[in-house]
Amino acid sequence: MRVHIATDHAGLETSRFLVESLTSLGYDLVDHGPREYDPLDDYPSFCINAALGVRADRERGLDSLGIVLGGSGNGEQMAANKVRGIRAALAWNHETAALAREHNDAHIVAVGGRQHTVEEALEIIKVFLSTEFSAEERHERRIGQMEEYENTGRIAGHHLDSDD
Fold first, then answer.
1. What is the mean pLDDT of the segment spanning 70-85?
2. Which helix (DSSP H) or strand (DSSP E) does residue 67 occupy?
3. Cβ(54)–Cβ(107) under 8 Å?
4. On the chain, which terminus has fewer CB atoms closer than 10 Å, C or N?
5. At 110, is the secondary structure helix, strand, or coil?
6. Catalytic residue set
7. Residue 48: what are its φ and ψ, rounded to 5°?
8. Hey, which residues does 107 pair with through a beta bridge?
9. How many CB atoms lie within 10 A of CB 34?
10. What integer pLDDT is reported at residue 88 of this predicted model?
11. Mean pLDDT for the chain?
12. What pLDDT is stored for residue 163 in this prediction?
């Protein structure tokens, strides 16, 4: 499986640990940066590039997921979610990592580098990477509604308040 990874300065140590650890476990890691520590870096481009990489791989039929890291993982998740067709989920334990895949077919996991030791982060991410989507009808239906809204601004058969 190919895994795209990106971070900001707060997750750089965790990112380096994950690249080494996951590569040794047989994953094909694509590091979208940053390459060096800069306390003033801007994470959106790194995380968006990782999400674009996951999307491009998946469109070509490749087995691909992603990881975005930061101090909390919140902003990084938000950035990855701006890429059309990508679902990124913040995970802070094994259960949230598994549910992101099982129920939401998330493509990217966000983890807070300042919230976990590198070993804890690795274990959360291993759960995410090894969990399959359940493909239950209710989960597929809900994902379909999110995709419909993303593409049309509507969800057929459901009332949505106007955002005008």
1. 97
2. strand 64-70
3. yes
4. C
5. strand
6. 76, 103
7. -65, -40
8. none
9. 19
10. 98
11. 95
12. 65
Does residue 36 sit in helix, strand or coil? coil
- What are the CA-CA distances from residue 155 to residues 84, 90, 93, 160 (Å)? 17, 25, 31, 8
Fold (topology level) of 2-133: Ribose 5-phosphate Isomerase B; Chain: A, (3.40.1400)
In tens, the pLDDT along 1-13 reads: 999 999 999 999 9
Amino acid at 115: Q
Q: Which of 58, 52, 64, 66 is nearest to 5 (CA)?
A: 66
Answer whether 122's CB lies under 8 Å from 21's CB: yes
- The per-residue pLDDT for 135 is 93
Helices (H), ranges, the chain: 12-24, 43-59, 74-80, 94-102, 118-130, 137-152
Q: CA 14, 91, 51 angle in degrees (round to 5)?
A: 70
